[in-house]
Amino acid sequence: MTSTDGFEIAFDGAPIPCRDGWTIGAALTAAGVRSWRTTREGQRPRGLFCGIGICFDCLVTVNGRPSLRACLVAAAPGDDVRTQHGSGR
Protein backbone atom coordinates (compact mmCIF):
# COMPACT_ATOMS: atom_id res chain seq x y z
CA MET A 1 0.00 0.00 0.00
CA THR A 2 1.47 3.37 -0.98
CA SER A 3 1.09 6.59 0.96
CA THR A 4 -1.36 7.87 -1.66
CA ASP A 5 -3.57 4.83 -1.02
CA GLY A 6 -3.57 5.08 2.76
CA PHE A 7 -1.64 3.31 5.47
CA GLU A 8 -1.65 0.17 7.58
CA ILE A 9 -2.47 -0.62 11.16
CA ALA A 10 -1.75 -3.96 12.84
CA PHE A 11 -4.46 -6.15 14.33
CA ASP A 12 -3.06 -8.91 16.52
CA GLY A 13 0.10 -8.64 14.44
CA ALA A 14 -1.57 -8.83 11.01
CA PRO A 15 -1.49 -5.82 8.66
CA ILE A 16 -4.84 -4.12 8.03
CA PRO A 17 -5.20 -1.53 5.25
CA CYS A 18 -6.65 1.80 6.30
CA ARG A 19 -7.56 5.18 4.84
CA ASP A 20 -7.35 8.68 6.25
CA GLY A 21 -10.42 9.51 8.33
CA TRP A 22 -11.31 5.91 9.14
CA THR A 23 -11.85 4.71 12.68
CA ILE A 24 -10.24 1.51 13.86
CA GLY A 25 -13.68 -0.10 13.75
CA ALA A 26 -14.13 0.94 10.11
CA ALA A 27 -10.73 -0.48 9.15
CA LEU A 28 -11.35 -3.80 10.91
CA THR A 29 -14.83 -4.12 9.42
CA ALA A 30 -13.57 -3.29 5.91
CA ALA A 31 -10.93 -6.01 6.32
CA GLY A 32 -13.60 -8.57 7.20
CA VAL A 33 -12.82 -8.76 10.92
CA ARG A 34 -16.09 -9.24 12.81
CA SER A 35 -14.92 -9.81 16.39
CA TRP A 36 -12.19 -8.05 18.36
CA ARG A 37 -13.16 -8.46 21.98
CA THR A 38 -14.48 -11.16 24.31
CA THR A 39 -16.92 -10.63 27.16
CA ARG A 40 -15.87 -10.89 30.80
CA GLU A 41 -18.48 -13.59 31.42
CA GLY A 42 -18.34 -16.55 29.05
CA GLN A 43 -15.65 -15.08 26.72
CA ARG A 44 -18.24 -14.50 23.97
CA PRO A 45 -17.01 -12.66 20.85
CA ARG A 46 -18.01 -9.06 20.24
CA GLY A 47 -17.29 -6.46 17.57
CA LEU A 48 -18.99 -3.46 16.00
CA PHE A 49 -22.64 -3.20 17.07
CA CYS A 50 -24.02 0.34 17.27
CA GLY A 51 -21.08 2.08 15.58
CA ILE A 52 -21.68 5.37 17.44
CA GLY A 53 -20.04 4.83 20.83
CA ILE A 54 -23.11 3.97 22.89
CA CYS A 55 -22.92 0.20 23.44
CA PHE A 56 -19.22 -0.43 24.29
CA ASP A 57 -19.24 -3.75 22.39
CA CYS A 58 -16.29 -2.71 20.19
CA LEU A 59 -13.63 -2.27 22.90
CA VAL A 60 -10.04 -2.86 21.80
CA THR A 61 -6.55 -2.30 23.14
CA VAL A 62 -4.68 0.27 21.03
CA ASN A 63 -0.97 0.88 21.52
CA GLY A 64 -1.21 -0.68 24.98
CA ARG A 65 -4.25 1.36 26.08
CA PRO A 66 -7.19 -0.96 26.92
CA SER A 67 -10.93 -0.35 26.67
CA LEU A 68 -10.98 2.06 23.74
CA ARG A 69 -14.09 2.11 21.54
CA ALA A 70 -12.99 1.09 18.05
CA CYS A 71 -15.94 2.94 16.52
CA LEU A 72 -14.69 6.28 17.92
CA VAL A 73 -10.89 6.04 17.79
CA ALA A 74 -9.34 7.45 14.62
CA ALA A 75 -6.84 5.05 13.10
CA ALA A 76 -3.28 6.30 12.77
CA PRO A 77 -0.39 4.84 10.78
CA GLY A 78 1.31 2.05 12.69
CA ASP A 79 -1.37 1.64 15.37
CA ASP A 80 -0.99 -1.66 17.23
CA VAL A 81 -4.54 -2.92 17.80
CA ARG A 82 -5.10 -6.01 19.93
CA THR A 83 -8.09 -8.17 20.71
CA GLN A 84 -9.34 -7.24 24.15
CA HIS A 85 -10.10 -10.20 26.39
CA GLY A 86 -12.53 -9.55 29.23
CA SER A 87 -11.95 -6.22 30.94
CA GLY A 88 -8.60 -5.69 29.19
CA ARG A 89 -6.65 -5.44 32.41
TrEMBL record:
Leader sequence residues: none
Record key words, sorted: Oxidoreductase
Pfam families: Fer2_4
Molecular function in Gene Ontology: iron-sulfur cluster binding; oxidoreductase activity
Listed name of the protein: Proline dehydrogenase
